[in-house]
Amino acid sequence: MRIICFYLCFFFFYSTSSAVKHSLQYLVTASSGVPNIPEFMGAVVLDNIHMVYCDSINKILEPRQNWVKEMFENDTELLEIYTRKCTVILPQNLGNRISSLKEQFQSEGVHILQMREGCEWDEKTGEVTGFLQYGYNGEDFVEFDLKTLTWIALKPEAAITKQRWDADSVRTKLNEDFLTNIYPQWMKMFLSYGKRSLQRTVLPSVSLLQKTPSSPIICHATGFYPDRAVMFWKKDGEEIHEGVDPGEILPNNDGSFQVNVDLNVSSVKPKDWRRYDCVFQFSDGEHVITKLDKTVIRTNCGKKILCNDGVTNSRCGEPQPCPPGHEA
Fold first, then answer.
1. What mean pLDDT is predicted for residues 55-65?
2. Phi, psi at residue 190, to the nearest 5°?
3. CA-based torsion, 135, 139, 141, 145: positive or negative
4. Which residue, 186, 265, 258, is CA-closest to 233?
5. Helices in 133-278 by DSSP H: which ranges?
6. Cα separations (Å) of 59 from 37, 54, 88, 237, 296?
7. Are residues 49 and 161 in the same domain?
8. Which keywords, in A-to-Z order, does the entry hold (predicted)?
9. For position 322, what pLDDT does the model report?
10. Domain that holds residue 327
11. Is 4 domain-assigned?
12. 190 shares its domain with 69
């Protein structure tokens, strides 16, 4: 799996997981030659919830959830560990590594180094899976193999880095300890503190949208939590795939999620519309069913824009300008 998309995308490493599998991710970006952004940014994400953020400009640890703030208030030693890791250790380490890579490739200009590390824990089986990956300038670069305790070069240019890091036995031991022991312990502690928030279930608000009469019907669900959910269309009670375009689950700014699923109705007769249902469903079976009903579809089509001199201008889909000389 590619771990690089853009220098800010580490904030959106969201993925759907099973009800008993938990993940703890440390997502870090170091940059050189990129204007107007911090040279270092770091985030801690638990079960797709943004817990902590820090960067090289503010140089403070910012809890992003109330329960995380409470946890650090109760455990000042942990707060000190995370503050030092996020404001001193990681910025120095990644800064040195990006300088080393620039020297190795003898290149100047813009450079981005990203790190993703952490672990997954299956609450049902007890299995722990650690991961540690680096990307450089938009491409996967190296990843740590816990089975062999060696680095894997993901592109030919990473072979020198692999050899150098493989030779660092102290760092190898630390990586193994964090990925298999320390991170799982921290994850379970975080889950204990955030249990009430992380285990809550919030059903979405569901709307039917259509840009123009010939456009697909968009079934839009937003405000739901957690992200372990699916949304699909049914006809006569059976799930359908033809004419259906499902979207990805995306995060909202408040920690909830949103998702769309489109239905092409160009060949559906008006009398058959009510045979279709949009279904939002959590992994535990809790669901929301929305009947395809023309009267509840929200659209711009047919709305009026008031221009000056009492002139109105219809719009359908994208807003249309007022006639020349009649702008409001």
1. 91
2. -60, -45
3. positive
4. 265
5. 159-166, 169-177, 183-193, 195-198
6. 14, 6, 9, 55, 49
7. yes
8. Glycoprotein, Signal
9. 52
10. 302-328
11. no
12. yes
Query: By the 8 A CB rule, do 221 and 259 touch?
Result: yes
Return the axis-axis angle of helices 66-74 and 76-84, rounded to nearest 10°: 110
Same domain, 180 and 213: no
Q: Percentage helix, strand, coil, to 5, in the chain?
A: 30, 35, 35
Q: How far apart are CA 17 and CA 192, in angstroms?
A: 19
Rounded distance between C-alpha atoms, residue 68 and residue 190, angstroms: 8
CATH code of the domain in which 285 resides: 2.60.40.10
Give mean pLDDT, residues 42-57. 91
| Res 203 pLDDT > 90 | yes
Sequence-distant (6+) residues with CB within 8 A of 268 are 276
Residue 87 DSSP symbol = I
Given a cut of 60, is residue 309 above it in pLDDT? no
Number of compact structural domains in the chain: 3
- The helix (run of H) or strand (run of E) holding residue 315 is strand 312-315
